[in-house]
Amino acid sequence: MVLMESASFQEGELLFSLPRSILLSLHTSDLAKCESLRPELEALEGWNPLILCMMYESQREKSKWKSYFDILPKKFSTPMFWNDDELRHLDGTGVIGKIGKEEAEKAYTDILLPIINAHPEVFSLTVHTVDLFHICGSLIMAYSFEGEPAASTSTSADQSDSDSDSDSDAAPPTVITMVPLADMLNHRTGHNNARLFYEPTQLEMRCIKNIARGEQVYNTYGDRPNADLLRMYGFVDEMNEYDVVEISGNVVVEVCCKDEEEKEQKVSLKRIEFLLEEDILDDYFVLDTAGNIPPELIVTAKILSMPPAEFASMQETQRLPKPKMTPEICTMLLEVLEYRLSLYRTSLEDDDALLAASDFVTINCRNAITVQLGEKRILHTALDRLRVWQPEPEPMTTKEKRSANKGGKDAKQGGERDEGRKKPRVK
């Protein structure tokens, strides 16, 4: 936690600067100096080069970054490290299918382990293990920055440089790096007030908003829902206005086509192919805290449920239906949302009761329940909106408008004729 106790800062002011020499990356690690390893290192993609460098540097007593690794965490609260009982509390959420532990371990086994085995002079199978691999990957997830390896102009660490070489449209190369000190700033959703900028010879943390005396400096991960915060960084915000709930395209298809016969299922496959070709049917449809139904979800439901002749006509004209709600689509979407809600093991009331018994709930379980609550609240909001939805009145025809205008004139004239007459006495 960094507090501005002694002074206030204005937007654009420098908070601190760091020499480029302290950055840890493939380009600065001593591992890159091993001639026999260089071809294999340069062939690695994604996070793998940095993970291997960190696995190497973190276990060296003479590493330039030893003191840095000494203060970095060795244990994490991300679901990657949870036990089965804790993971059970994530059933139904958008987290459970994105943890990626099996995929990560396959990358270690298939990509990094052969390199470790091939260089016993550098690595040890008892030291550079899959557990260390997970630790280094988690450190990159939570603490790394993305910027230029050798920038020639000022660039923000979380955005590409727009002032690229005038002779080339290609974006400047970027590299994932560990940046000691800069990664000490905390996250708080919606309160980002500092950003790291890459200068030619140093990195600068600058204010992007005015920071009053006594305020905390935040360099955040962005405005993310709790499902992402928990999966990637191991914490949640109690009330997160950026929460979302994901409804898989498979769920939508399953609900909308559940009563079809075998022949109709073949027709549905053509509709699904059409929706995929038109980029309408997504892997996930996303609902935010307002509970609004995405237009693409309405269009998907319409196409999946329209009569065969209407679908054939739409294919010919290539004119998609408008994302306008109808009573039939409203009923169908109610089924979709109710089915999505049924995927959780517990109800809103169950979750509230579990959180109330906080003495008996671990921090991991509490975070999982918080994610569930955010998603369930969105689903309930969307369901409430659909249940009270009413179709808009049909616009009046020309004939109806004339009739209404005529009726209004007659009423006005009648009132004028009555004006000045003595009202009958009521007995």
TrEMBL record:
PANTHER family: N-LYSINE METHYLTRANSFERASE SETD6, UNCHARACTERIZED PUTATIVE METHYLTRANSFERASE. The keyword S-adenosyl-L-methionine applies. This is SET domain-containing protein. GO terms for molecular function: protein-lysine N-methyltransferase activity. InterPro entries: Rubisco_LSMT_subst-bd, Rubisco_LSMT_subst-bd_sf, SET_dom, SET_dom_sf, SETD3_SETD6_MTase. Residues 397-421 have a biased composition (Basic and acidic residues). PROSITE patterns: SET. GO terms for biological process: methylation. The lineage of its organism: Eukaryota, Fungi, Fungi incertae sedis, Mucoromycota, Mucoromycotina. Keywords: Methyltransferase, S-adenosyl-L-methionine, Transferase. It comes from the Eukaryota. Residues 151-173, 389-427 are annotated as: Disordered. One of its GO terms (cellular component) is nucleus. Residues 1-222 form the SET domain.
